[in-house]
Amino acid sequence: MKVCITKPGITSILHFDCRLQGYGNDAVINLVSYHQSTQSLHPSKYRGPPFRTLDYALQDAFKEFLEVRGINVELGNFLIRHLHNKEQQQYVKWLHSLAFIIKKGLESS
């Protein structure tokens, strides 16, 4: 998941690329980048060092920074469940549409 943190009245953004290490496990930060504004969110040529190569104290500080704001494993697991449910609902809707088209085609034959 991508997390963008801003402050009211300030245009700069702290951007985190995160992932879950398997269902129910720790959230992992892949990358942290700073952008001067929302218009500068496009990928830059230099994205900084990989997160895992940063000083461990800095890594821990970034993880705590996100957790204080509710970006944690529970949120990640909620998002995964939500996306699975949404995908299932879209699939069922598609099946109903397909059944309607087939039924309509059979009736017109």
TrEMBL record:
SUPFAM superfamilies: Mitochondrial glycoprotein MAM33-like
Pfam families, per the entry: MAM33
Record's GO cellular component terms: mitochondrial matrix
Origin superkingdom: Eukaryota
InterPro entries (alphabetical): MAM33 (IPR003428), MAM33_sf (IPR036561)
Protein name: Uncharacterized protein
Source organism (scientific name): Picea sitchensis (Sitka spruce)
